[in-house]
Design goal:
Number of helices: 6
Shape: flat
Strand content: under 5%
Order of helices and strands: HHHHHH
Length: 146
């Protein structure tokens, strides 16, 4: 019976994780849509992908590369801050990879790079969503209105 209880607890965590991720999906879709609507594909991409990464139960380091095309598009659209934050996130992820054995061994300095990477990813998300919400709609609507 203890084994069944363990499965139920694990399933409960899985359900919560799925619910949190599902809550992020509409915001991610909105970010992509809004970026296309206002002609800011880069911030739309960054907001959408970074949000899904943040809300994912499993943030594997290699997924951070999904931000690089969005950063390149952001750069071409004049969005320098979003691009710099993405470069910082990728750099910190690279450091994390190089220190992976120390992270697994719970060394504080090495683990701090994971925390810094996650904070940088949060900053990318907030910056990109902020740019999407502030940009006027070329069709005459203001702000983040649908």
């Amino acid at each position: 019976m203890g084994r069944v209880t363990g499965c139920v607890k694990l399933a409960g965590v899985g359900v919560l994780s799925a619910a949190v991720y599902a809550a992020a999906v509409p915001l991610s879709v909105w970010a992509s849509w809004r970026g296309a609507r206002i002609g800011r594909i880069g911030p739309g991409w960054l907001a959408s992908v970074a949000l899904l990464l943040l809300f994912s139960a499993f943030l594997s380091a290699q997924y951070v590369i999904w931000l690089i095309p969005g950063a390149a598009v952001s750069w071409s659209e004049g969005e320098r801050v979003s691009t710099y934050l993405t470069v910082l996130t990728v750099f910190l992820t690279t450091l994390f990879w190089s220190l992976f054995p120390a992270v697994i061994a719970s060394h504080v300095v090495a683990s701090s790079f994971v925390v810094l990477r996650n904070l940088a990813l949060l900053a990318v998300t907030v910056q990109a969503f902020s740019r999407l919400a502030q940009q006027p709609d070329p069709r005459g609507r203001r702000g983040a209105a649908l």
